[in-house]
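Protocol step 4 of 5: obtain the predicted structure for the target chain.
Materials: sequence only (see below). No template structures provided, no constraints applied. The aim of this step is simply to have a reference model before the mutagenesis design in step 5. Sequence pasted as it appears in the construct record:
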Amino acid sequence: MRSLWRSFGAAATAVPREIVAIGISMWVIGTSYGAAAHGIGLAWWQIVLMACVVLAGSSEFVMVAVVAGGGLPVVGALTGLLMNIRNVSYGLSAGRFFRRDRTLFAAAHLVNDETAVYSAPHRDPATARSAFLICGVAVALCWPLGALTGALVGQVIGSPEALGLDAAFPALLVALALPAVRDRDTRWAAIFGATIALATAGFVAAGIPVVLALLGIPLGLLVTSRRAVPAREKATS
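Step 4 output (structure tokens):
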């Protein structure tokens, strides 16, 4: 565990502006979640506890949406679990720079969209680990804090969607992911993944297009591998 905190300490000496933006965005979206959860009758401590234990954003929103629509809480929980299948791929990506010891379990709780996107561009394991941890701690603090804020002012915020809060964080993720798209392999995977997600968005349940977008990875690899073969043939001729 001490090695985990040493890596975090090295990253925390100079907090990048992106981390500040992520933290603020998480607080804003967490406020939206807290207000919505308050609207279905959850107590403030239940809202904050779910934010800390699940720490997945979309899963909490799905849980609230299902219950608000008259569904059973267990159905909401299972739907949220299905949405978070994408975290398996995030874990495979993050696993390349974490040690195989007890710290792995603590780091696993911080695997999410934000930490995966923020650490992905770093090739050096130590740098990637530091980026992952500083981002993960920012999310772990700001998301529950936002949930608490939303729970306390839930009577005031009647319709968070009307404020455009749901669009703020996706825009931030796009901005963070743009540097990674400079890599050719990543660019093709992103193009295919975005196309699949957009094409299926109106025909499957919410959250499923994100999972289907993972098919863009093998398709992107297929395109880049085919283009690499003629390039090698030209080089040897």
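Step 4 remarks: The two ends are 54 Å apart (CA to CA). The chain has a mean pLDDT of 75.
Proceed to step 5.
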